[in-house]
Design brief:
The chain starts with 14 loop residues before the first helix and ends in an 18-residue tail after the last helix. The N terminus is likely disordered. The chain is about 40% helix and about 20% strand. It is an alpha+beta fold and about 475 residues long. Strand 5 and strand 6 form a beta hairpin. The chain has 3 domains: about 210 residues, no CATH class; about 90 residues, Pdz3 Domain; about 90 residues, Pdz3 Domain, CATH 2.30.42.10.
Amino acid sequence: MLPCLHGFWRYLAGPDSLMITLLNILIVVALFNVIIFVHELGHFLAARWRGLRVDRFQIWFGKPIWKKEVNGVQYGLGWLPAGGFVALPQMAPMEVAEGRNRESGKEEEELPPVKPLDKIIVAFAGPLFSFLLAIVSALVVMGVGKPEVRVESTVIGYVAKDGAAHGKLQVGDQILAINGARVNGFLGSPSFDSVRESIMLSEGEKLDFLVRRGEQELTVTTEFQIPETRWWERRGMRKVGIWVEGRTVIGSVLEGGPADRAGLKAGDEIISVSGEPLRSWQRFQEIVNEAENRELQLAILRDGEEQMLGVTPRKPTNIEDAKVMIGVGFGDGGEFTKTIHNPGPLQQVGDSVRMMWVTLTKIVSPTSDVGIQHLSGPVGIGGVMFDMLGSPDGWRQLLWFMVLFNVNLAILNMLPLPILDGGHIVLATGEALVKRPIKARLLEVVQLAFFFLLLSLFLFITTKDIGDRFRGGGSGPVKYEWPEASP
């Protein structure tokens, strides 16, 4: 579930930003190719070691758009940017994926059979090399540090009026456990055991929250909601309408907007609104949405001194069906904590395996709302990598992502499905047990069916990746028009 290019277009504001954007895209593409190359290199070296003939070594699928033959091996780059392969005619070739046909060249030659053990070794070598690349990346992360952005508090600062938890959970409740499992922070836990992830990945029809309210602990049962999405977007994840406690700090002020005219400045902390104390910026946003053309009295803290300001929320004049707002962006309210630590390789790999296990088990569970559509393909993964490069300490985040991605790649390729490495291992094991290879025609049909099944799955996930990244950007920058008589 990688796990979303939301901020892509803002990088295209000027020539320098354009160059940075293009450079980041090239870095992402290069890293993808390194990951694929290392995986396929494992197959290639194992095949050479075990004496198998190698026809082709190609990055990406389909007919090559570039190729070069060296010592009898054709090296190339395919047109379909997904995965790669080493063509080994003595194993179980896949003509469609490899962009070739059986009538061409070497496929017609009679080749000696390969022992099942050799097939297993060659198939296993790809995931092994991916895992080794994860270990190498983990060693680098251990040296340079791993940045984590987390919310460690579990105290509720906001309960939405239209949320499933309204009237049940309360502001000030400290969440201790969800559905019997202890929680670790509000979000950002690498083990998927924070409040937010526990809600999203929960199973069943209800959620049981163990909370500390005042001096007592009690269990509160709520339902959940799944936000509506359009057909080209991923299905929404479970939510109950809560957020963690934090300060409401103004991060930016729109020039010419209500907040600007009222005298609000970046860095101001809003303490209360019309006498109501604030414990979350979401509550402030909710109050603003309900106060169109009605002045609100804000108690703010500026440079250590408390001041009172009046602001009148309005809808922007250039956006149809816009929400009521005052024209501000929110800054760091203290709920997020950023840490850089140096975890050992085994811890990093263990966290990656745990995340992969949780994801797969939730996908196959009939009582979970997590599905295959919540996986990410090359577009989604590339978008995540691109976003990381544009953030502070992005290169450190990208190194940690290399650990996670390569562990995932190794595990997924070991699944016992035809055309995957795990499928080759199963076929070779079966061949060793029955003392004869599977009929070539039957194997071709099964492989072809699974290839098109996986291709369809790939295209489906890619549409969701694109739908999530390009949701539609509204009508440009927010603008307000004020009557000339206005002060």
